[in-house]
Design brief:
18% of the residues lie in helices and 31% in strands. The protein contains five helices and 16 strands. A hairpin with a 3-residue loop joins strand 14 and strand 15.
Length: 301
Amino acid sequence: MPALVTPRVIVSAALVACLLVAWPASVPAAAATLDGNESDLVTAVNSFRAARGLARLAISDTLTFASKWMATDMAVYDYFSHTSRDGRAPVQRMTDAGYPGPQTYTGENMAAGYASAAEVLNGWINSPAHYAVLTNPNYRAIGVGRAYTDASTYHSYWVMDVGGIVDAATAVPSFDLGYHGAWSAQSPDVMLSPGQTATLVVALRNTGYRGWYRGNPGQQANLGTAEPLDTQRWDLDSGWPSASRIATTTTAYVGPGQVGWFEFQVRAPSSPGSYVLRARGVIDGTTWLEDPGIYWTITVR
């Protein structure tokens, strides 16, 4: 049921799919951005609104942060509600993420058990409370989050947060996302001939309270390039997922307190010299892990 809050109207609606469906293949995403299906939902919502003469919604970093946090929390702790486990209503979660919620109109739609953005939107269109959120002319900004876990009732969870102000702020969370990591071990530096390859490994301990799920966007732990973050290392790339994503965990799941191993290859550049590869853990689409100063020196002779 929608909730009305004064002095501003906050419409919150929730919808659960009647049938559980399979989750699609993962889509690579850079840290703090939308994954492919989240982007699809934003596009679908904006097309739906534009076809009815309503303003398209701008993507807000703060609303995206708030929606991703809520989707992940519901998936990990197996519940479905507009009130988070710590007792916060949607507008409070948006505000805590840095969005000026008390100053404008805000709203939230949720869905669980749906496989695609098209199915989610269709479900909302066919629900009066959700339709009211989709067609509210006061909204100007949007954030979408999606999370998945096998252990939960509905497996997949979607959250759309919307607001009446297009904010320029970057999300500064006042609450813990639950993703943390600490250095545990790594292989030594290597000396190679031009074009030669070598296998390197590093181990990170999951010091957070959320698991790392390989193949699930927003919950998969990757090893990203660092200093600067996301720098393209084509000079050393040898079969990496991308030039800025070195590897993901060797196991499908790394729980809190467990150690996740990242194994990958480097290829020596053609020019002799010393090449430094710096790396850092990242939960793509959610947050970077702590920086323990991981690096290797690859000497080419």
